[in-house]
Here is the input.
Amino acid sequence: MRRYTIFLISLALLAVACKAGKSSFQSEVVNGEESRKQWQEIPSVITNVRDRAFYVLRNFWNDVSFKENVLHSQNTELDKKFLTFVRLLSRYPDSSLRRESVNIFVSKVEKSMEVYGYFVEQAEFYLYSPSSPIRDENLYKVFVERFLHSPCCDEMTEARLIFQKTMMSKNNVGALAVDFSYTTAEGEVCTLSEMAKGKDVILLFYSPGCRECENVEYLLANNDMLRECIREERVALLAVYVDGVETIWERCKDDLPDEWISATDWAMVRRNRLYDLKAIPTLYLLDGQQHVVLKDVGVETLLDYLAQRY
Here is the structure.
């Protein structure tokens, strides 16, 4: 809860800055007197947008002494500062700028095992956790790579980060989605590759009784545009019960809309870690050739995309 409070405070500060009519990058930087000072101190000879961004990011942590007691004396301020740092990095997908900026940051925090561990957790919570409102897997990958090369990375941290790195490498946008077999409510055994030919496929990994699953199912079932696309066979919706408990499957298999494909994979996806199911429900969108178009997105993002496409 404390982290979300800090997140909302930071967003409010950034929103005020945006209303002040500053340039887009400057408005992202402004978060208190300290960041305004950093912006003003950019040498006038640096005019390239990327170079100006890197100047701010490179010097962003100059005023912080990363000693262990900093976590006890400046914990809240560090959270707010890290959120601003992450938002600045999110503005610029330039991979080299991200790597260089993160490398400078981790080089500072790894002077203390405790501080290093704290920021490993912060990065994971804000950028990888499915409950985070600013989750950014691509940016998190940059942090993971650098964290893994730190002398502070112990065996437990290394194992966790390597596992996350492996899972993040699966079914990325543009890649061919991993095939798997499933059993429909009618008892027919099919594969994803067989049903994904020539139409977009919404993959919904769900579990009966999950409140968030029910919310997502309601939004999908009551969207007129999506119902029309399914009726016209431009889109198929494959809802996969992922826990594989036979008694639950028998009880719930007919609860979903008739136009959806209700199925269970008998826990094969989870057991073999074919998809990164950090939380349930999880949504993917595939194209007619089974390539991933959207990966692990919210239902609003999915419906907005389909509305623009159709």
